[in-house]
Queue: 4 jobs
Job 1
Amino acid sequence: MKKVIFIIMILTTIISCKNQNESKDELTEMEKGRPKETVSLSGKSFEYNYGDYVYEVNFKSETTLHWKCVKGNEKGREADETYSKQKLNNYTLFISWVEEDGLGVSQVINLKNNTVNTFLKIGKEIIPIAGTIHELQKLDE
């Protein structure tokens, strides 16, 4: 278990260092003039598109999310999860949770580039997958 956590930490560090090196000092004029904002996912819904699999994820609070598979082998499957997050920069977050069946999910979400890098931990295997992410518009009630 310690090895898996160590591997996930190493992978996350590599990705965040790569993203920071690519975007270091690339602030737009608008970003330079405004205070740094904390990225909040709470109350927002996103579509995660991994090609053959598509999920809708609703961040109900700063610690609870609801996901639903809308395309792929798991279509119709859904659950609420308790997640933890860490801000990597103004538009990139690392989030992680463990599902009821033991599946570990760790994600680096980049809201500037609309990308999501996910690592699934199944038993002793780690499966990296990359996809796109976009915010879903709220429907007027």
Job 2
Amino acid sequence: MRPDTIKRTDPMAILSTYYACFNERRVADAAALFHHDAVLMQMPGAPRQRGPDGYAAFAGEWLQGFPDARLTVDRVVPRDHAMYEVDLTATGTHTGPLALGGWRFQPTGAKARLQLRELLEIQDGQLVSSSLSIDVQDLVHQLARVDVRALLQRLSRMQRLAEQLGATNGDAVRQRELVDRLGIELDAARHLARPYFGGNKSQ
């Protein structure tokens, strides 16, 4: 059902069309359901998006990471005359880069299954706000891949540097050199242990 043919006074029809459009890759049709100044809060730490373009940008990011993504509506709970809480199950195979808020995930091939909750407000037949809740830790656990071997190598180097630092006998120049090298190893180890933060590359 296209957005211009649904009953604008039927919120359930609007919601059904909204998720069907995503599953059918009719992103433009789903975006057309939003008011031009709708407020979208999609991820913790991410800036608010506005209107149809904001939705299209978020949907595009999700589909880039999960080209076979699908949303299943598990439950719809009306909160008042305009607010609707929707419980969703999102599934898909992580075959593309995914950038959400401050998190960056390179393709892992993982088959993900996530529980989402979206709070939507409908006014005069249009979506005027969307707030999406997602368990970020669950997302991280399913998608982040830590290179344990490389991490152990970095930790071993740090241990050797720490031993050398302890044996400098007050040599300030040598201490500064070792501290700088330790800093490099610490940064590298942090990137390996937490590869999903912005600017890192998960393996």
Job 3
Amino acid sequence: SLMGIGAGADKSGGDCQLRTYELALACTGEYAQFHGGTKPLVLAEFNVAMTRVNGIYEREVGVTMQLVPNTDELIFLDAATDPYTNNNGGAMLGQNQTTCDNIIGNNNYDIGHVFSTGGGGVANLNAVCNTNLKARGVTGLGSPVGDPFYVDYVAHEMGHQFGGNHTQNNNCNRNGPTAMEPGSASTIMGYAGICPPNVQNNSDDYFHAISLDEIQTFIQGGANSCPDHTATGNTAPVVTIASSSYNVPVSTPIMLTAEGSDPDGDALTYNWDQMDNEVATMPPVSTNTGGPAFRSLTPTPSPTRYLPNINAIINGTTPTWEVLPSVTRTMNWRCTVRDNAPGAGCTGNADLTLNFSATAGPFLVTQPN
């Protein structure tokens, strides 16, 4: 039988304030030439990129970044005379800190970043508001345009600067405590498409629950001193789960569901993230006794998630990235509710433990009823 114990308690994911950070955004001459070679054209592209990134950060964590007034002075048009080594991300970390400090002034920005056409992405963790680290962020891609650049790279590298670690369980720059997504992951702080076996080729435009936890902790801690704070009048949504713990038979599809409410009547979306970080065989196998076995899925208006997805259950198939255990193990889950409030979204979450038992199940349908 399905045993339930207690109720999953709601936790607010943040304080629902809008934090505005002054962004010193620079670029290499190579990047400028890609985007037309003039300061107005590059500045226009900066605004396109940051409109996309800010849209994500505002919805997810109540953060927005605004370009400093003299951003044009950080736009270098000539690769021969700019202060950057375009194809060396590591070198550009220090180069950008020096450049932003010299041109903008260390006291006049909260986070700095440089766009290039090479060198990949690299950034210091927990850098925002830190005098010596805050401009140490680099994003470089041969074609620095569109979501593959804005979401997979810029939002990801800035995510490091805002305290987020990698979420992929695969062994490419894996971070043990937060390796909660199977394969190369599918959310912003993973390595979607670049660390086989891959769940998918590009990142979905939201943060995994563990990333939300890290970033919200940092912006209310180490990165709370330097932004402008704006009261939004928004109240955090609430999510509850009927029980905080269930005993489940192995190899048996189940349905996770929660109940959400919002004092402001905002249109809520939900997603369920598995919160297990043990290193495990990938793609997941049913005999894994730890680690992630279910991929993260984009938030939807439904508070329910089927394990595996309902089409797989109906068709009797096992999706590569949604694998029920066939052995005794524990799985930890978090339901995150987003209120998607314009300007500064707020979140709530509740946790659930599934105790899979090999001495029970699988439950089978033996005859029609």
Job 4
Amino acid sequence: MKSKLTISVILIFLLVISSFGQESNPIVKTFPAKAGENLQLSIDPGNIEIQTWTKNEVNIEVISKKKYKVENLVAAKTGSTIKFEIVLEDSWNNSVTVKVKAPANFNFDIETTGGNINIENAITGKLNANTDGGNVSFENVNGEVYVKTSGGNISGENVEGSVGLHTNGGNISLGNVKSGKSDIDTYGGNISVGNVDSDLSAKTHGGSISIGNVGGNANVFTYGGHISMEKVSGSANMETYGGHLSLEGASGDVVAKTMGGHISLENITGSIDASTSGGHVTAELSPKANTKSTLETSGGNMELKIPASAKATIYLKLESDEIDEKNVDDLVKSDFPAATFNITEDGINATYLLNGGGAKITLKCSGGEVKIKKWNK
């Protein structure tokens, strides 16, 4: 008798264990579909996974490893739009996943109140994805992309269209963007973007930013981290409260400001407004006519490279507590002759007229050395 009881207990235990490993009460819906149609999908709460296939239909399956109860379910197609909404009674059940299979040429408007969103294949169409808490990932998209998460990472491949990515706390990683503007921001995380054909805006409240080539204007800001960009076809605005700034080229006005870090600006055609409260400043500048540029550091060295053919007027103000005639040549080195050069108790004031003067360039350096060099482009 005791042996039979033991066997019964073991069988019940095994049955319970196996039931936890099985998917329970799935919901399956299938709709006829054509390329270019729309899917509006929302779950409260749960994860969303989307795959593409070659069939002219959309298949939606709700699965979970835990039992769940449905408070409300809408599954219908009206015209060219499929609408699927599911609300669970247990708002804390995050084990539910909605799996979708749809044509690759489709528009997706998807939302979850809490869960991850994963677009597993390339799509042609608009992508609008929103989660109140989770990560979002997508492959190549030939269409506009707008993604928002209240707390999670966003990662995507290449996009051909405008892009808007926002997270309240997480990293953002994106490939190349063609034929559209990019607006990217996170309240706490790093940002990495490939090449962008048009204008770019990237902002993080705490993290570093890395950007490839930009085919328009670039506006990049972080409260704490480094910023690096390759070539910008238009104007570039870079600002960090604590980190280094690096730009490989620009064909417009450049603003580069950091509260504590080095600034490196290469191959700039236009003007520069650069300042750091603690770091070195190096710049290659081919100034446009009638422009004004300012380079300033409060605790570092400065180096300006400028073409010998440039028409420019350079004003130098160097502040130092240790200036005498013996170390002047160490503090200021120039490939161009000075029109005026005055040594005072507080520092050095000098003027350089290149080819009769022209675009105004002001160099302000406190506690460092200054070099003005010919730039052989």
